[in-house]
Amino acid sequence: MNNLTEKQKKINKLIEEMEKESNKYKLKKKHSLIKDLVSPYLSSDYKHLQKNIAYHLEYTLPQTTRNLNLFGTYLATSYTVRDRLLQLSHDTQKYYTEKKVKTACYISIEYLMGRFLQNAVLNLNLEEEYGEALAGLGYGLEDIYDQEQDPALGNGGLGRLAACFLDTLATHNYPAWGYGLRYNYGLFKQSVDVEGDQVEKTDVWLQFPYPFMIENHFIRIPIGFYGSIETYVDQKTKGTRFKWHPSEYVIAQANDILIPGYGTDNTNTLRLWSCRPIQELDFKKFSLGDFKGASEKRLNAENITNVLYPNDNEMAGKELRFKQQYFLVAATLQDIIRRLKEQKRTIYELPDFAAVQLNDTHPTLAIPELLRVLLDEEMLTWDEAWDITQRTFSYTNHTILPEALERWPVKLISHLLPRHMQLIEAINWKFLENFSENNKESGKLRKKLSLIENSRDTLVRMAWLAIVGSHKVNGVSDIHTNILKDKVFKDFHKIYPKKFINVTNGVTPRRWLHACNPKLSELITATLNSNEWIYDLTHLSKLREHADNEEFQLKWAAIKLFNKKKLQKYVKRELKIDIGYKDVVYDIQIKRIHEYKRQLMNIIGSISYYSDLLKMDPKKRKEMPKRVSFIAGKAAPGYFVAKKIIKLINCVSKVINTDPEIGDVFKVIYLPNYSVTLAELLIPATDVSEHISTPGTEASGTSNMKFVLNGGLILGTLDGANLEIMKNSGEENVFAFGITKEKVDQVKQNNIEKGAYNLMDEKMKNAINLIENGTFGNIENYQGLIEELKGVDRYILGHDFAPYMEAMDRVMQTYQKPQKWWKMSILGCAGSGWLSSDRTIKEYAENIWEIKPCPLPKIESEKQLGFTDLSSQLDKRTENKLQIIKKNIEVQKENEKFRRVYKIMQNDDLN
Ligand code: NBG
């Protein structure tokens, strides 16, 4: 050592100095420096917004200012919104952690969010600033909003409800997380071919960047499948313990969407899991030339979150769907437990840390999964583990349709999740034993209550498991909850009378009035002299005083007309159909196509009306009040009957709309590719909307609520939330018809005994004749539909047809009396305060979750904080660039090329 040469010593010294030199830049206080650099808050005056937009255009996308276009500007604008949300979200999470609040965790296999940008800009209260910023760049805010595609990660009401809940939770400062799946392909895109048939195309929604979803690389969770169970003796307790050894693993990757609340800084998170392989490529196979085999594991893993199953109110009994369900709950529970432990809290505190809501039965596997974690990993006793499980979970039922009540084969579960099947059996055994102990006459009932059904296949009844493993079970409207208590879950209700409660659905007034109907929102705010209604919808009741006021009615009607004109333009552009908008009743039925929702009754009604019009004296016909009947909604690709209904609608539409005798007296229009965004256009433009399900089948319905909120009147049956709308908005303000649910069974029985056709109304028979004689194309297309109607008619269309037509007649008569009509419309809206999801969530929070709002302290002013922001660090050159951008805009506006390419790509099935 001592023999180092002088030269070596010199080298060592030099190295030492170099090391010192490089350490010079490692600042001790790096955390506070970073905080200083990015904090406190991004300024949001229009100049700063412009600079931020320019920054993202240049550095995030990246685009040069010379090829600036609408879509790029939309993306850059979205990134600036995301920046602001990120700051608020960081503050929110930090604050919740500090306060050790209890959090609601909503697990749902679907979220139908709709467009994000407009909602976020409105909720952040930055519409004026963004409007000005973008106008300066030569773009209108609406055009920018229009660039966004809907992320269609849901089928219908269940997923849209989850989205409304997230908006409310953030707006009312509730600590909450949404958990779901980030599917690569959303709900299929629908078009209609020349034959009138539905055509499905893959929704490749991730082919373009989606700025609002942030891949969180720090949250990656391993999830196991298959494998075996090890049994061993616990040295401490000498009891038997089990351990699951999965034979396959995949990774759950978190993707976060930040959810802003309206008029608050609280910003919650929707965490969507996507599946990644544990191993990207099997190098051994690759080296041996087996290229396909080398990627097999990756493809299998990615498959798990590839597609959203397109079934609404129907169980998709596929193994892959089951894997999706487990993947979702296993990742979610690990994430929740990780956050609990980060707070240095023990597993016993779980029920005080998180209230986990199971949105329908799809996430029910969370129950055996938590039990497994508590027993096998946390080493709790059964009683402790079961107590924690029950206190953590609650379950919402959204349907009573037998085809939607999930039952999974024991064989499948045992193969995929052997330990979970063992636990389900244990839960069942303990539950039934406990029941028999307390009930002498338990023999027959045991079979009915068993979580495992012994039919042709041995099946696990997921709803039964959800009930037993939760502390609260709720239905989604009064009538629906009563059916659950009295019929579907009758025996469980007897055992646990207090477990069952009702929480009627609601919708967010931010999206479904304030954003989608800005003119009406302005009028309401001006009339009430306050915008408080936006977060406390009960204020709408004050509109009652104005219901008779002629001037107010006039304004109200003018807004409806304005919205109808907007829809009319859309129909002309997209379908090349010209409809007059003056004095035409816009009658709309928009929802998934399902037999129980009875779109078939609607279209047969149109056929019958058409036939009446044809028989009329031409002079009289011309004087008839005018109506356009709109229908929109997708059918599950495998639902044959629903697809035939779409075909019939389209064929009828073609005949009626091209019949010169009919002219513009009556039209039937099917709007393809129904989406949240299309609903936002349709609902404000509606005069009357149809909610005509067979009584007792529609759990609640939520679109009915949106129509009433926007001054649309309801033509509806005594079903779901229609009944509560009647109660709150006044029976006289709803066009109700038909029998109560109690009478349905009798009618069905009569149909079976006497044959539905023999009991059918004459007008309906006549309409069916027209279908049968080929007026609307080959009868073979509709054979199945007609046979069902004539034979059993399960959804009792024949019985309800006459009252339905009579109610439609009342609608048309009333529309001729504008004063009465607008009064009904205003009173409907005035009575809809309780329809807000804010009310719904308050009930969940108080009666089920036991969580409390935790508002972030308000930031007083940006000046006070002495903000430094990213954009102010951009140098003077930015100003010059903005000038160039502005100059380029005019050229760009003419250049529609990009827009067209984008459109083509949007419609292209890349698969
Ligand atoms: C649907 C019901 C609707 C209800 C929504 C939301 C399912 C399984 N159910 O009536 O059909 O409004 O849930 O609760 O999608």
TrEMBL record:
<keyword id="KW-0328">Glycosyltransferase</keyword>
<comment type="function">
    <text>Allosteric enzyme that catalyzes the rate-limiting step in glycogen catabolism, the phosphorolytic cleavage of glycogen to produce glucose-1-phosphate, and plays a central role in maintaining cellular and organismal glucose homeostasis.</text>
</comment>
<keyword id="KW-0175">Coiled coil</keyword>
<keyword id="KW-0808">Transferase</keyword>
<feature type="coiled-coil region">
    <location>
        <begin position="1"/>
        <end position="31"/>
    </location>
</feature>
<dbReference type="InterPro" id="IPR011833">
    <property type="entry name" value="Glycg_phsphrylas"/>
</dbReference>
<keyword id="KW-0119">Carbohydrate metabolism</keyword>
<protein>
    <recommendedName>
        <fullName>Alpha-1,4 glucan phosphorylase</fullName>
        <ecNumber>2.4.1.1</ecNumber>
    </recommendedName>
</protein>
<dbReference type="InterPro" id="IPR000811">
    <property type="entry name" value="Glyco_trans_35"/>
</dbReference>
<keyword id="KW-0663">Pyridoxal phosphate</keyword>
<comment type="similarity">
    <text>Belongs to the glycogen phosphorylase family.</text>
</comment>
<dbReference type="InterPro" id="IPR035090">
    <property type="entry name" value="Pyridoxal_P_attach_site"/>
</dbReference>
<dbReference type="Pfam" id="PF00343">
    <property type="entry name" value="Phosphorylase"/>
</dbReference>
